[in-house]
């Protein structure tokens, strides 16, 4: 007995098992999310569990379906405590001496998990004395809290405690009046700032908590500051939905403040971070992305911030690039680079080179693209990782390595390209930023291996990209991975399944306005259609792809489109048109200085000439392009060219 009451050890009954058994004692369709929330509320305490469920049933939050099974109603009110639960908690809290109740009131404001040193400083009490009360009377005697952990903040000790049941904390917090609650939130926020003030990474981690305290205290300026910090940190960690929530709250608070130059500057920072967050969760062409960057551009004109305008122009260039509006993307990227050069801003000059590098790759201007990308690569060091992620949502240095690998392959340097691809992938995995890794897997992994016709490697990288995208919620990269996996399956002989996945990925992309790389995807689909014995469908797909090339100027696989068209025409017996298509492919490749595409088209043309008995012409043409190469002689394209050359020499 304690205080004249009989003490019953309910702890033995408190578990998830009790919740599961009690819920399932009656027919129900209550899912995992409901069961998790019930456990969070009660921690399996039998009385709390039974009474909370009874309250939900009595209020109609839980209802019975026509078959008599309990299901969730239109809304669930977890906030209202049943009278019996509230009475039990009130009785237990009421037993305590006032100093203990006062400490718990402060603790309830910090949250379910709280800090002894915060409680002590808010109460202007001795820290050791507060720890003694928490660990002694409130933990071992009254079983209301438990010690959780001790951490170090530089030279300071931080002692973590947790309420043994969330409902204890909720009861204490709900019973504070509005004035007392606001004062305590301000006090707790100020003490947390003092404790964490010189620990930048630590204070960023608790920024959401600080924002909440200062918002509840009615100190909007500090709340906005910490919401921005929390949002930017979430974006850097690829936690885009969390970032959107923080940044949107920050904007809502900011818009309630008087208009001023300071407000415009704060909104600009919030809009920039919000644009990156929407890119991560909905894809670059999403309306929310364009809205954020358009508003940010307007704010730049008000504030005259050159560096941020460079960033915005670059992000708008990327938006148009992903929509396959390549010329508009190029204009914006050139504007961003010119502005950065006039401002002598090294970071934004490097980013300007990157924007132009990947856009020129899409335009099929490989030599110019490589020159820009290599300027970004020369600037890049891994310690620049987080500033780059903050500026554009992805690590531009890693992206430059990935695109440069593709450029090197197209220009006829397959070994250098492979080395660059492997470097980009290794570094992306080492740095561990999920969105940047997805970007590198797409280009240094999937696209690179698709171009060099390495189907097993393409399949591996596509499946890794799909897993990562599913895990992190990247719909755009998921669509890319699905397309590339379909291409790999078709190359490996699973043609029907491959075509289905390609179509699925393309449909997902087009539904959100992504048209980037569509010409390449149609090229791969046409090749699969040819393998499936559907040359007419393949030619129709190629006609669609070539029309897209003329509309968008996306020309990085133009030579391959004409070569493949020649192969399909040849399969139909139209030698003359096939030869014309092969010549067109070679003409495009030469204009682009794309030796790998030229080699592949030359082999197709010269095989036709071999069949026609035009041995000398074929031998001379293959020897000329084969003789240009200085590396990569074990790659499939060069091996095929060598075998053809040897066959022609024997004839």
Question: Can you give the mean pLDDT?
Answer: 92
The total of helices stands at: 33
Which stretches of 5+ consecutive residues score pLDDT under 50? 1-13
Largest sheet, spatial ordering of strands: 3-5-4
Q: Largest sheet at a glance? A: 3 strands, antiparallel
Strand content: under 5%
**Helix fraction?**
over 70%
Per DSSP E runs of 2 or more residues, the count of β-strands stands at: 5
Cα gyration radius (Å):
32 Å
Terminal CA distance reads 107 Å
Molecular shape? elongated
Class based on secondary structure composition and strand pairing = mainly alpha
Fold blueprint:
Blueprint: H1 16-23, H2 32-42, H3 46-58, E1 62-64, E2 70-72, H4 83-94, H5 98-110, E3 113-115, H6 116-122, H7 127-141, E4 145-153, E5 156-163, H8 166-174, H9 178-196, H10 200-205, H11 207-216, H12 220-236, H13 240-255, H14 261-282, H15 287-303, H16 306-322, H17 326-343, H18 346-362, H19 366-379, H20 385-392, H21 396-411, H22 414-431, H23 434-451, H24 455-472, H25 475-491, H26 495-511, H27 518-531, H28 535-552, H29 558-571, H30 575-592, H31 595-611, H32 615-628, H33 636-650
Antiparallel strand pairs: 1-2, 3-5, 4-5
